Amino acid sequence: MKKGLWYAILAYTAWGLLPIYWRSFNSLLAGEILSHRVIWSFVFMAILLLIGKSGWTEFRKMVTNGKMLLQIGVSSILISSNWLIFIWAVNNGHVIETSLGYYITPLINIMLAVLFLREKPSRSQWVAVALAGAGVLLATIDYGRFPWVSLSLAFSFGLYSLVKKRVSYDASIGLAGETVIVFPIAVAYIAYLHFAHHDSAWTLPPISLALLLLSGVATALPLLWFAKAAARLPLSMLGFIQYIGPSITLLLSVFVFKEKFSPVLLISFSLIWTALIVYAFASMRVARTRTSIAK
């Protein structure tokens, strides 16, 4: 569990900082950025599999297994949708709404964990859920309109987390499969943009172009860390650790991107972090109890 915790912290910290990265390509269409993200993720994962001792062998076994292939297809669609919405929102001035979306995601994770994985949060953990829910509700009301970006991000990533929690293949193998499925679509879209004279990536300054080519690494590493965390931690705990990411994003939206931050949002932010602390202590108490019983 300790190792899973560190993987989760790494993944969510990286995701929290990514708006700075994607904002450097705001002259490109969101679909073009996503397509490059998919293509270079595919290249990065192919290199990792080639380096690994049995990577391609395990990959072939996975893609010839109908059940696993279906799981990969579903997870690939979910994470690609999440990426597209996130990139569009960041590059169109909706960074706070993306932050709100990832604040809602842990509540979705807990709901899914209870419904599909039969996880049973303790009373203290439910108190944390109530506090976080109140914080999210306040933020939604303060936002002033139906937060379709937030809810789309929350449900797509929550369902992606559920799928990843139910799979049994290695993290790198699974991510390679996800990129393979959407790779042809990404290549086709880039080709369409090129022939329609709408592609802009190759006109970027050299440094920005180099960063775009590194988008595969920026995409794949946090997802690998997340997959390793998902294999080691309960889905509900994984959801609460996720608050690290949107908290960083929220701070960026205010202090870097200069988006409006109201007093109500500050109260919401405080409630959510209080919930995180309560949940962390409750989870540690549950873990100690289970260890004592095991002994």
Write up this protein:
The protein has 295 residues and is mainly alpha-helical. Helices cover 82% and strands 0% of the residues. The protein has helices at 2-23, 30-51, 55-63, 66-90, 95-116, 123-143, 148-166, 171-195, 206-213, 215-232, 235-241, 244-255, 263-294.
Chain-wise SSE layout:
Elements: H1 2-23, H2 30-51, H3 55-63, H4 66-90, H5 95-116, H6 123-143, H7 148-166, H8 171-195, H9 206-213, H10 215-232, H11 235-241, H12 244-255, H13 263-294
Helix pairs in contact: 1-10, 1-12, 2-4, 2-8, 2-10, 3-8, 4-7, 4-8, 5-6, 5-7, 5-11, 5-12, 6-13
Descriptors:
295 residues, 13 helices, globular
Provide a brief overview of the structure.
The chain has about 300 residues and is mainly α.
Strand tally is 0
**Between the first and last Cα atoms, what is the distance in angstroms?**
17 Å
Unreliable stretches (pLDDT < 50, length at least 5) are none
The residue fraction in helices comes out at: over 70%
- Biggest sheet record: none
Count of helix runs: 13
Secondary-structure element string? HHHHHHHHHHHHH
Alpha-carbon Rg, integer: 19 Å
General shape: globular
Structural class designation = mainly alpha
Q: Average pLDDT value?
A: 85
Strand content: under 5%
